[in-house]
Amino acid sequence: FRVLALETSADDTCAAIVDASRRVWSNVVVPQNYIHEAMGGIQPMVALLAHQRNIPTVVQRALTEAKLEMADIDGVAFTRGPGIPGCLSVCLNAAKTLAAANNKPLVGVHHMQAHALTPHLTLDSPPSFPFLSVLVSGGHTMIVLVSSLVDFRILCNTVDRSIGATIDRVVTLLKIPWTDKGPGPGLEKFCAERAPEDSGPAPKYDPPVPMPGKLAFSYAGLHSWVERTVSAAGGVEHVNRHALARAFQNSAFEQLETKLQLALRAHGHAVRHVVVSGGVASNLHLRQRLKRSVRGPVEFIFPEPALCTDNAAMIAWASMHRFLAGDHDDYAIDPLPAWSLDELKNPPPNKDA
Ligand code: ATP
Ligand code: FE
């Protein structure tokens, strides 16, 4: 069974073809970083227009690179939510139209379920259920207990904003250059490099520790601490940017580490694997830290960086079990911009419908 999947929930326009034997025939990602860097973050309307412009080319490339035609495709999948409302409508409409015109079944996928199940696509021996999934991305910061392909229970969630969104804002605030892969890799590179300012005495930056002992994340306080530190110094030119960026990155990752330890203590008795995915999981410093911080028989799984950030291969794979069970969605299906993993099996009715 071969699935063509489309993903446009944030700022990457993606199409991929994956089959039931886990072969990835093609996996095309067209990013928009070059557009959004100038504006200091994702602008929803700009992202929507770029998706509209790029989606036909991306679909065409996915078919050409796989040397396949629509006749060789057995089902069409797309990201139903969560994500930026206007952006989601691009992959939804394209997938519906492709499916209807070619008389193929259609499946709408939960974007975070797809991030969590990525190792089941890439590994010959995937994590056994139940496993813990640490989802760290642009829109989410969660620890989830995954008991089957469709049973997800959120154990720890952010009370304010996500780690990825916080990283992106701090990168803008500290005027850290993006890499061609965006602001997050820019922070990683900036923290790892030796800078001229490192030759002087390092100032002591002391970030706050949010909600100690609680199974909840918070990143708003860390963000405003960076803002306060910069404005107290009289501007970004007057702080040691490398030292401050490292203090921020350390604190952001330390929070993941301590909450994961708490979650493992409370819910980890049957858990043998911890899967860390979502864009922030591509950070190599974070990977090393997490592996060092947890003792005991749990094994960490980090998908390769290119499959941690947004892609349609993960969407295709997360749809596969439904296609194989003959469980399809109606062509009239609506997007779900705010869809919780706790409601994966029973999606809420679309309020606008
Ligand atoms: P969501 O998956 O929650 O809908 P999204 O799809 O926009 O959000 P992803 O593409 O999964 O998010 O992740 C993007 C986030 O990951 C951005 O905030 C980006 O800065 C961050 N990120 C990417 N690479 C790195 C890295 N090497 N270090 C730190 N953060 C990173
Ligand atoms: Fe994502």
UniProtKB/TrEMBL annotation:
The keyword Metal-binding applies. This is N(6)-L-threonylcarbamoyladenine synthase. It is found in: Mitochondrion. Keywords: Acyltransferase, Metal-binding, Mitochondrion, Transferase, tRNA processing. It comes from the Eukaryota. GO terms for biological process: mitochondrial tRNA threonylcarbamoyladenosine modification. It comes from Mycena venus. It catalyses: L-threonylcarbamoyladenylate + adenosine(37) in tRNA = N(6)-L-threonylcarbamoyladenosine(37) in tRNA + AMP + H(+). InterPro entries: ATPase_NBD, Gcp-like_dom, KAE1/TsaD, TsaD. Required for the formation of a threonylcarbamoyl group on adenosine at position 37 (t(6)A37) in mitochondrial tRNAs that read codons beginning with adenine. Probably involved in the transfer of the threonylcarbamoyl moiety of threonylcarbamoyl-AMP (TC-AMP) to the N6 group of A37. Involved in mitochondrial genome maintenance. Belongs to the KAE1 / TsaD family. Homodimer. Its EC number is 2.3.1.234. Residues 24-317 form the Gcp-like domain. GO terms for cellular component: mitochondrion. Its main location: mitochondrion. PANTHER family: TRNA N6-ADENOSINE THREONYLCARBAMOYLTRANSFERASE (PTHR11735), TRNA N6-ADENOSINE THREONYLCARBAMOYLTRANSFERASE, MITOCHONDRIAL (PTHR11735:SF6). Its cofactor is a divalent metal cation.
